[in-house]
Amino acid sequence: MKKIAIACFALAVIAVLVMPVPVVAQQSYVDSASSGPPPVIQVFKEEVKPGKSPLHTKSEAGFVAAYKKAGLKYYYLATTSMSGKPEAWFMNAYASMEDVEKANEAFDANKTVQAELDRINVSDGDLLSNASSMYLFYNPELSYRPNFNLGEYKYFMVDTYRVKLGHYDKFAETRKVINAAHEKANLDEHMLVYNVGLGGAAGTVIVFQPVKSLKEYDDSAKTHGKGSEYYEALGDEGRKLMTAYNQNDAMYFQRDFQAISPQMSFVSDKVMASNPSFWNQKAQMAKAPGKTAKPAAMKDVSKTEKQQ
Q1: pTM, two decimal places
Q2: Which domains does the chain have, with CATH numbers?
Q3: Which of 44, 67, 156, 237 could form a disulfide bond with 90, CB atoms 3.0-4.6 angstroms apart?
Q4: What's the pLDDT tens digit per position in 174-221?
């Protein structure tokens, strides 16, 4: 993580020039099921080798066990891809980049935990074909009904946008129109908008939408399609604006689903209490020759980098 963070600080300057990165007051995000979107999320992506996903899940259970044994409170959420590359995402919540630094220092000072985490990292790395890390910064102005109880959800619909440099204001205008139509139609949805500030291409925005059941995707034509309250609320002008954005301002768009993995996640008791039968699922720990459990943000990518 440290190697990635230091290398990307120069990119942060570029990202700030391209799009606004809101400053949000610090607060705690680690011990609540609905404490609001964190200002900073570090997403650690692990691309799993074909056929190795079951072993990877078992391996990651070792990280969770090590955290619990050490009494650590650095909670993180794990998801697995349902489309696109076979990836596992580990998301850590922070109040600020200063908070990230303090977390690193705390792990560096705990030599016992470091040794255990290093041991687990060795075997986990053998199951991966690639790994990367990026930092996302919350954009409250473009988000829609961002407060929700994480423990009640099982999936995320993840929309990735890349906007042409200098065209971010058009993207923002479009998101505001979309949110206004959702509000007018009173849609019970949640959309968390994050700007990629470190570790990704400039102009990249990720929108996370928590989903309780995949049936919601089946029903999307009814709730968002022609004739729906949302469609009417958007109006002809809203649809023209979206078409103009797609034609003139957009570079890239991809929609994927991520399934929350309770076996690989390390969440608080408050989150688990929302749906115990889901969050208490167990994965048999892999018997690895040794490796240490770190939060997703702290994982060492050096081994994976050598394989590339």
Answers
A1: 0.81
A2: 2-137+259-299 (3.30.70.100), 140-256 (3.30.70.100)
A3: 44
A4: 999 999 999 999 999 999 999 999 999 999 999 999 999 999 999 999
